[in-house]
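I hope you will forgive my troubling you with a question about protein structure. I should value your view on which stretches of the chain appear to form regular backbone elements. Here, with my thanks, is the record as I have it:
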Amino acid sequence: MAHGETSPEIPFLSVLSSMTRLMRYNLGSVALGSLIVSFVESIRFLLEAIQHKLKGSSENVFSSELNGPSNQ
């Protein structure tokens, strides 16, 4: 085989065909995984915010009872 010729068994643009396969299969999986992680993190954030709010309101109720009736 002379210099500069390509083998019929090897694709002419093997790097380009590999990049095409990468974008077609692997990047879709990465995007789906990122979407799942973002949903889980959002739910976790909401639950922690609710927990913090409920914890803060229960502390306020107990602290007002300990300080006695407020003058309104």
In short: Residues 14-66 form the longest helix (53 residues).
